[in-house]
Amino acid sequence: MLFVAGCGSDSGGAGTAPAQPLPPPAPVRPADVKANELGKIPVLMYHRFVADPVSVYDRTPEDFRAELERLAREDYVPITTADLATGRIDIPAGKHPVVLTFDDGDPTVLTLGPDGTPAPGTGVRIMLDVAAAHPEFRAVGSMYVNADPYGGGEAGAAALRWLHDNGFEVGNHTFGHTNLRTAGAEGAQEAIARGDRFIREAVPGHTPTTLALPFGARPRDHQVAVSGPGYDYTGALLVGANPAPSPFDEDFEPAAIPRIRSQGADGDEAEFGSTTWLDKLAANPEGRYTSDGNPDMISYPNGEEGPAEQYTAAAVAY
Q1: Which of 40, 81, 96, 313 has a CA positioned 20 to 30 A from the CA of residue 155?
Q2: Burial group, residue 119, by CB count within 10 angstroms (0-12, 13-18, 19+)
Q3: DSSP code at position 146
């Protein structure tokens, strides 16, 4: 007769050695991963995803998926604009931060299905699918909305709440997509404040902290973009055409963070688009931001110019 040993209640375990705790992993040295936390960071800009693009601001869902897959393969990890603006970059050693930003609240970016989750084919669903296939590539983005985002009404408000509840940043793009350059100081402040109020009402308990400037147009008084009656922001996004400096670099201006339009290798102004810039960063990896894995330390190679003065105490050259 064959007897099968099971998990009996008698735990005397004669002859069984107690389990030993695993040793902690060896710390990663900045030099081992060629850390450079003073390097460039791509901030990518998206608007909508359609099968037949009609402008340089459109991308197909397939193009979007391919770009995310490329970012995952090349060890990029998404962070939010708020993370970038405040220098809260907590990603694994050897990885590179990327900021994925989405303007205008288009339904192709997010529409909730009958089950209350992002519908297949939408931008956020694609992000979730890529993150599931590449666990270190997290589904994180910064979503900048106007009036009636994601189809408007209660469905749009529910989409905003879903984003907030699932780790996405919900940011301001002004209520009416206002050109803040031509609106005048009072008009610009009201446009920003109205958008801010709309978001707070739609997502109770949420306080927006960053703004995407419509058309990339800064108010004549640049401070108006980040501070005014009813709002106080840590960062503002331009349209731009190049990677952003590290937040620890003396050239970093949180109220004027440049972005790169998502674009293929050809077409109008492709030399300023995401494919070209990702190619450049891949060809010159020493120039991009590479994490040391320690959010409390700023590592960079010897011989490089150091960080802005306020960060010197946390900086270590190797």
Answers
A1: 81
A2: middle
A3: -
* Helix H or strand E segment including 162: helix 153-165
DSSP 311: G
8 A C-beta contact, residue 168 and residue 129: no
* Tokens 């350059």, residue located: 181
Encode pLDDT of 156-212 as tens digits.
999 999 999 999 999 999 999 999 999 999 999 999 999 999 999 999 999 999 999
DSSP code for 305: -
Buried b (16+ CB within 10 A) or exposed e, 217-226: bbbeeeebbb
Please give the angle made by the CA atoms of 270, 108 and 254, to the nearest 5 degrees.
60
The H-assigned helical ranges of 203-290 are 274-283
Report strand pairing: 227-228 vs 231-232.
antiparallel
CA-to-CA distance for 212 and 173, rounded, in angstroms? 5
Residue 51 has pLDDT above 80, yes or no: yes
